[in-house]
Specification:
about 450 residues; alpha+beta; 7-stranded mixed β-sheet; two-stranded antiparallel sheet; 20 helices; 13 strands; binds adenosine-5'-triphosphate; binds magnesium ion
Amino acid sequence: MIIELPSEAKHIIDTLGESGYEAFAVGGCVRDSLIGKPPKDWDVCTPALPEQTKKCFAGQRIVETGLKHGTVTLVLNQKPFEITTYRIDGDYSDNRRPDKVEFVKSLKEDLSRRDFTINAMAYSPKSGMVDFFGGEEDLKHGVIRCVGDAGKRFSEDALRIMRALRFAAVLGFSIETGTAEAMRESRGLLKNISVERIAAELSKLVTGAGAGRIMTEHMPVIAEIIPELAPAIGFEQNSPFHCYDVLTHIMKSVDSAPSDLHLRLTMLFHDIGKPARYSERDGTGHFYGHPQLSTDMAKGILTRLKYDNNTIDAVTQLILYHDADILPKKKHIKRWLNRIGEERLRQLIEVKRADAAAQSERYYEGKTAILDAALQAMDEIIGQRECFALKDLAVNGRDLIEAGVPEGRLIGATLNRLMDMVIDEEAPNDRAVLLEIARGLN
Ligand code: ATP
Ligand code: MG
């Protein structure tokens, strides 16, 4: 197997080689190259110590990014390349960060400290593929497997539990039984990992193609970081609209949504309040008020996981409205546009589509047809620049004051009234007409 290295990585490996140091592309870039996915970045490993590496690239832009961990970053063609000395990790007293690292001489030792077999391969043009742990085979069969004893590897660093889920979801892989078992047993150690690092992995995980599938299969691990999901497991809905229990519905809706962080997080939490809002009438299940409760719970979870406000705002708004009707009538769509704006309405339509795809099949076509028509109505409104927001109204506050409307609260109320009339097509968006109406109103 030959890997096409970018010229910069080749230059780094050659330059180190000229000084007598072997060097390899390693980790994610080798994995991604083998599956035909363009690597995000190219990491190089070498027995040269950071000081020696720096000497090899004297006069070039080199940044001491993680000297303690043996990493220097060389900038070539404005792109960063990490060069890391072969190392093994010292003791992990906190299941989190090695207390210290130790530089070593052999590539095999360095590869043995890496998390999964598919991440523990190295490549150089001279030596070809170096694969001591069967990474290529696991890659071929779509398997995530720890290097060495899984239980020990997770107790060294519990973040690897989340990384296993993430790689499985993103690559569409399954997790080898022994590794999966160890993840389950070690899941309690996740409490030692910072929420920021957990959330970073969760974000990659939920946007993966197999996110819902993997989270369903590893629910005890997911419930460790989001215990609020546990009541949904196996919770029957007893509704003609639903063919799945709440958790299955949630996870299928995740996989049905486009691979976008806000949309996927919305689906993950949109029905999280259902179990607590269950009621039954004539044998049929209802969940009155669940969108509001799900919204509140999602806000709590996302805040705890330290997501940014932009994400929290988008996700909670989408959850709040996920069950509301979006009808393909222009007036109605303009109201939506006025309330949440174009971008959010487009997202909401995707959310409703994913929700419908995870319910009883018999209503799916009807529901998506309505959403398609709503989208078309929205495109028309936007395309024809029809007015649905105050900023596009033909009059503003100053105009009203000049027309004699008393300053103060009345201005806002009048503007909103005019806005309503324009949306409802009771008045044209025309300055003279609207000023005339405003005078009459006050
Ligand atoms: P990505 O595409 O997300 O960058 P990656 O495999 O390059 O994937 P990184 O987090 O950039 O992942 O790490 C680079 C390499 O370092 C990994 O391929 C793996 O060999 C090793 N590694 C990273 N994190 C750990 C960890 N927590 N435990 C053991 N090895 C790790
Ligand atoms: Mg990487």
